[in-house]
Amino acid sequence: MAQGLTTLPETEVNPRSDCHAWSALPLAEFPASILGVTPAEPGFSVVRIEPQIGKLEWAKGSVATVKGMVEVDWKLEENDFTLSVKVPEGVTALVKLPDGSEQTFTNEATFQVVVL
User: Fold this and answer.
1) How much of the chain exceeds pLDDT 90, in percent?
2) Does residue 4 sit within a domain?
3) What is the mean pLDDT of the chain?
4) Which CATH number is 47's domain given?
5) What is the value of pTM for the model shown?
6) How far apart are CA 31 and CA 55, in angstroms?
7) 58 part of a folded domain
8) Own/partner pairs, 25-33, CB within 8 angstroms, 24+ separation
9) pLDDT given for residue 20 in this prediction
10) Residue 67: which region, alpha, beta or left (left: phi > 0; alpha: psi -120 to 50)?
């Protein structure tokens, strides 16, 4: 930011190339992985949501798909897990919750489960 860059550079020194898309992969991969968004069918007509909690307490973000943005917001407080998801119109979501239960919905939904 201090260097006024608008893309991810190859290196911090000059001369350099200031546009390397390969180094931007984490900007798409990390949210999709942590939020647990993957295609369940080709073209994201059905999307699978299976949050990867690990040692995190919460995650919130959007994942771009060819059908539109999938928005996910999850939080773990003590043993209470809350997940809110919004999918584009015409997309079906398959959700796998940390307690092993699975739900299917369209548009948007919120789920709460106890995680032991």
Assistant:
1) 72
2) no
3) 89
4) 2.60.420.10
5) 0.81
6) 15
7) yes
8) 28/63, 28/64, 31/59, 31/61, 31/62, 31/63, 32/63
9) 63
10) alpha
* Beta-carbon contacts of residue 30 (< 8 Å; ≥ 6 apart): none
Residue 73 maps to a domain? yes
pLDDT in tens, 45-66: 999 999 999 999 999 999 999 9
Strands 108-114 and 80-86: antiparallel
Which pairing describes strands 92-96 and 102-106: parallel, antiparallel, or unpaired?
A: antiparallel
Per-residue pLDDT reduced to its tens digit, 83-94: 999 999 999 999
First CA to last CA across the chain, in angstroms? 42
Residue 62 structural domain: 21-114
Of 21, 2, 22, residue with least CA distance to 12 = 2
In a domain, 97, yes or no: yes
How many structural domains are present in the chain?
Answer: 1
Polymer length in residues for the chain: 116
